[in-house]
UniProtKB/TrEMBL annotation:
Keywords: ATP-binding, Ligase, Nucleotide-binding, Protein biosynthesis, Transferase. Its EC number is 6.3.5.-. InterPro entries: Asp/Glu-ADT_sf_sub_c (IPR036113), GatC (IPR003837). GO terms for molecular function: asparaginyl-tRNA synthase (glutamine-hydrolyzing) activity; ATP binding; glutaminyl-tRNA synthase (glutamine-hydrolyzing) activity; transferase activity. The keyword Cytoplasm does not apply. HAMAP family: GatC. Belongs to the GatC family. This is Aspartyl/glutamyl-tRNA(Asn/Gln) amidotransferase subunit C. It catalyses: L-aspartyl-tRNA(Asn) + L-glutamine + ATP + H2O = L-asparaginyl-tRNA(Asn) + L-glutamate + ADP + phosphate + 2 H(+); L-glutamyl-tRNA(Gln) + L-glutamine + ATP + H2O = L-glutaminyl-tRNA(Gln) + L-glutamate + ADP + phosphate + H(+).
Length: 98
């Protein structure tokens, strides 16, 4: 079952993509190849093999989180160029009307 040019055009409309006729003609066979490759992978998957997210088992190498002394808010803000209401004050980068 080959994916048609009309199906590619429909997918493009759903994705809100504007594609030229040449792009539609080029993408149809490419998407068909991708779908065929995915179908071949699905054929290989055996029912007796459980789904996995990784090929090998993972081991957590991070240390356990422990609380330890850190800077107070005042100490952290002491080196700031500008502070306001116990927070770092930074220049506005977004338009408030958006």
């Amino acid at each position: 079952m080959a994916i048609t040019r009309d199906e590619v055009a429909h997918l493009a409309r759903l994705s809100r993509m504007s594609l030229s006729d040449a792009e539609l003609d080029a993408l149809a066979p490419q998407l068909d190849q991708i779908l065929s490759a995915v179908a071949r992978v699905a054929e290989v998957a055996a029912a007796d093999i459980p789904p996995t997210s990784h090929a090998v088992p993972l081991t957590n190498v991070f240390r356990v989180d422990t609380t330890r002394p850190s800077l107070t808010a005042e100490e952290a803000l002491a080196g700031a160029p500008s502070a306001e209401e116990g927070r770092f004050r930074v220049p506005r980068i977004l338009d408030p009307d958006e």
